[in-house]
Amino acid sequence: MSGRPAAYTRAVKTPSALLAVPLLLGCAHTLQVPTAPPGGPGAPLPPLPQASIELPLRADIRGTLRSLESLVPEVFDTGGRFQMIGPTPAGIRYRVQRAPFRFEPRQGAVHVETTLSFTAEACVGAPLGLPIPFLPSCQVVASCGINEAPRQVVVGADTTIRLDASWHIVSQTVPTAPSFRDRCELTMFRVDVTQFVGDFVAEQVAAATRRMDATVNQNGDLTPRAQELWTSLNAPMELGDGFWLTLSPQRVFAAPFDLTLETASTRVGVLAQPVVTSGARPTPAPSALPPLDPAPEGRPGGGFALTLDANVSFAETTALVAQEFRGRVMELDGHHALVREVRVRGSGAALLFELDVTFQDGPFDGTPATLFLAGLPDYDAAREALVVRDLDYTLDTRNTLLQAGEWLLRGSLREGLARRAVFPLGDRIRRLRDSAQRALTRPLGGGSEMRGELTTLRPVGAFVTEGGVVVRVQAEGRAEVTQDLSSLDLTGRRAAP
Questions:
Q1: What is the pLDDT averaged over residues 256-270?
Q2: The pTM is what?
Q3: Among 298, 351, 361, 443, which has the highest number of CB atoms less than 10 A from its own CB?
C-alpha cells in the first residue's frame, strides 16, 4: 500500500525535514546524536467518499384505475329521442354500450381503453325544429347496428405518474385518438354517427381521467413522510464504544416511475456523506428537506461506501513498541546494545522512533545514546495491521554512527524494529464495521425502515496526524430504506393516516 517512497525520501533524508541541529561527535567513548525536532502532521486526510442510499417507493394504483369504471357511465344514449343536427332537417338517435375498461402497461405509462358498441337511427323532420306539413314527426330513413351487429369504436388514454420536485405524486392522462372499426354514415346528409359518438364518449373519458388525475394529485403528497425520513437520516446513530455514525444526507434523486397494472414504483436515491466519529454525540447542523431532483442519466445506484478510521495514538504506538523492545539486547555487527526506552512521535508524514540505548561492549561500552529512526506508516491488509515501511536511521543519526564506526549501522536493531513495529487493527476495524452495519438496519419511523449490508473492506491508507496515526479503511456495500405506502390512498376515498 505504500506508494510514497519519494515523499518519504524527501521527508527523512533531507536535513531540514527532520533534523535542524548540526552533528555533534564528541571525544572517544562518547556518542552524541542530535535530537530530531518534531515535524508537523503530514498531508491532510483524503476526503470522505459520498454514499448512495436507495429508497424504493411503491404505491398501489389498482383503486385509482378502477375508479374510472365509476367515473364513466356504461351507457350513453339520447333517451330514445332524435336530436336534430344543426339547421338541417335530419336528426339522429343512438345508444352506446361501453365495455369494461382494459389496462395495459406501455413504456412507463398505463394505456387504458374501452370498446364502444352502438346503434344509431337517422330521421328526416323539421329543420330547426319547425313542423313540416303532412310530416307529424321525424321519419326514420336509415339506421346502422339495428338488425345487424352493432358498430364499434375504441377510445382510450395514456396515464403517466411521476414524482415532482415538491415530493408530490403527479398523474397526467392524455387521450388517444378514437379508433373506428366500422363507420356508420346515415342519410343523404352523410352524417357520420361514428365520429359523433366517438368524439362524444372520448370527451367523457377524458373528463373522467382529468378528475382521476386531480384526485391523485390532491392525495399524492409525500412531503410529511419525506420530512420525517429526512430528519431520521440526519440523526446520529450510536455504534457503541463511544463511536457515532452520522449519515449527513445532502441531495435526493428520483428515477421515472415504472407502472404495472397494480403498482407505480420508483427508486429514490439519497446522496449522503457518512462519517464515523468518537466522543460525545455529534450535533448535526439543521438540514431542510431538499427538492427532489431527477436522477441523472448513467448514475449508478445502490453503492454505499463508509469510511472507518482506526486511530492509533502516539501513546499507544509507544506502549506497543516499548513492550517489544524495552530491556531487549540488540546485536550490532557482533556488538550489543541494551534498549532502555522507546518513544514514537510524528515528523511530517513519517513516524519517528526514539530509542534510548546503552552500548554493552566495544569502544562505547557503557555509553548511553538516543538513536532516531523514521519510517512511513502503512496498512497491511493481509496482516490487518499498521506497519512501518522504509524504516531507516535519520540522516543526522546515520552520519553520526558512520563517524563513530560503521558497525553501529549493521545488526538487528533497525531490522528488528521494522519487523516488530506491527500494530494489529483487524478486530478493531471489524467491530466498527459490524456496529455500523447494525446501526444501518433499523426502523426510522413513519413506516420506513433502513437496511444496510457492509461487505468489502478496502484499505485507503495510513496517515500521520497531530495526535497519532489514522488508518483509513473503506467498507463498501449497500444501504436501502423501504417506505411503506400501503396507507397512501390516491383515490381519496378514505381518511389520510
A1: 90
A2: 0.72
A3: 351
